[in-house]
Each structure stands twice: as structure tokens, then as C-alpha cells.
Amino acid sequence: MDEYDFSGRVVLVAGAGGLGGAIAAGFAAHGASVAVADRDGERAAGLAAELAARHRVATAGIVVDVTDEEAVGSMVEAVARDLGGLDVLVNAHGATVRTRAEDLAPADWRRILEVNATGVFLCCQAAGAHMGRSGGGAIVNLSSVRGRFGATFGQTEYSASKGAVDALTRSLAAQWAELGIRVNAVAPTFVETDLTRTVLADERFAASLRASIPMGRWAEAEDVVGPVLFFASPAARFVTGQILYVDGGLTARV
Q: Most buried residue, 99, 166, 188, 197, by most Cβ within 10 Å?
């Protein structure tokens, strides 16, 4: 039995950016039907079409604002209707700003928490309700090492939001185990994506970050795909409520 064969299973990836795109491609390469949801409808549709052509799997591209409860509910309904169910949810959306706490605008605080924490909750809530009625499933949240320890260079709101994701992951895992729903999180260090590229453009900061990681580099999107597939697969059938750090050894020093 190939525990990483996702043929016949439906995966919803919320977030079609660098990480979300790589994760969606990973599932499609292993035979899953994949729905990609993003606030940017063209990006979601384009990625869905690309995956369908490359991997010969059923796909869907969906426009969604993850902070809109009604829109999130409609997203889950559309996936279940158009692709025949929902077995796996991956929350890969996110936002950040790089501002010291004393200079952080309350509007930015609220926006980041809404996207990174409330948005994850709403997606989990809607998907979990469907999975609970359908015999179970797997949810994988994208967290960060910043949920474990603070960032001295700013990103107070980002660290707080990822700490919330970690706590939410554990809480839902405990509540939903009896429904057959497993909930885990993958927490990478900095991954070079559109979201972090402006931060890593600061050469001095990028060099200090690289020096703090025992393996000597920051993460790439592909480094995150395997752990996500593991949590979603039968290989992790008895694993729930866990936060897996994909950080080149960074947290081993903390």
C-alpha cells in the first residue's frame, strides 16, 4: 500500500502563493483532486488549470476572502459539490508586516490577526463541519517558528497570530479526534516566497538569519511539502495535535 497515494481524495489548499502553490502541486503529483482558493481569483484559476494539465487530475480554482465567514462556507460547499467531497484542508494563506511593536498601527495588527488567525479558524470550522458529517479527514495548518518564540526585528503581530494557530491546532485536535479529524501544523522558518521576499531583501538581516540556522540556509517551499503530505496521509493516522518545525535546526538551539 502506497500511503502517499492520494488518488480518490479531495484536497483544499487555502492560499495559492509560493507555499500554497507548491503544496497544491505536491498533492496533485500524488493523484489528489485539488481545489485552490485565494483572494486573487486569477492566481487561483491559473494554478488550478496548470495542475490539471500537468498531472491529469480534477482541479478547481476558487476566489475567497478567508476572513469572510459566508465566503468560507461557500468555498467548502463548492469544493464538496464540484470535486465530490473534502478529505484534506491545508491552510497556507498568510500576511505580515515588518514593523517594531511601538510603531505598529492597530489597523495592521487587526488585519494580520484576521487573516492569519481568524481566517485559519473559519476555514477549519467550515471544513471540520463537513468532515465531521463525512467520517473524518485531515487538516494541516501552516504555522511558523515565530509562533514559538518572538521576533526581535518586528513582526509582533505575525508571531502572535502564529502562536494562536498553534494553540488552535492543539485545541481542535483534542476536540475533533472523536470525529475522525486529525489536526496538525507545519511550522517552517523563513521560506523564500512572495510574502517574505521583501524581508529577505535586507542583506544584513538575511545574512544574520542564515547564520542562526544550523543547516546554513533558510527554507525553500519544497522543504515544506513533504511534511504537509505526511500529516495528510495515512502514514500519520495516529498523529494529531502536533507542531512540526521545518527549520534546519533553528529551534534546537532554543
A: 188
> What average pLDDT does this structure show over 182-186?
99
Grid coordinates of 51: 495542475
State the DSSP string of 41-96. Answer: HHHHHHHHHHHHHHH---EEEEE--TT-HHHHHHHHHHHHHHHS---EEEE-----
Pick the catalytic residue: 6, 158, 218, 231? Answer: 158
Q: Which domains does the chain have, with CATH numbers?
A: 10-243 (3.40.50.720)
From 20, 34, 28, 2, select the one nearest 221 (Cα to Cα).
20
Label residue 97 by pLDDT band (50, 70, 90).
confident
Burial of 70 (0-12, 13-18, 19+ CB in 10 A): exposed
pLDDT of residue 59: 99
The pLDDT value given to residue 227? 98
Say which DSSP state 238 is in: T
- If pLDDT is split at 50, 70 and 90, which confidence band does 132 have? very high
Q: How far apart are CA 127 and CA 137, in angstroms?
A: 9
Q: What is the pTM of this model?
A: 0.94
CA dist 40 → 36, 46, 149, 244, 247 (Å): 11, 10, 31, 29, 29
**Residue 53 CB neighbour total at 10 angstroms:** 10
Q: Which residues of 202-218 are buried (b: 16+ CB within 10 A; e: fewer)?
A: eeeebeebeeebeeeeb
Active site residue 158: yes
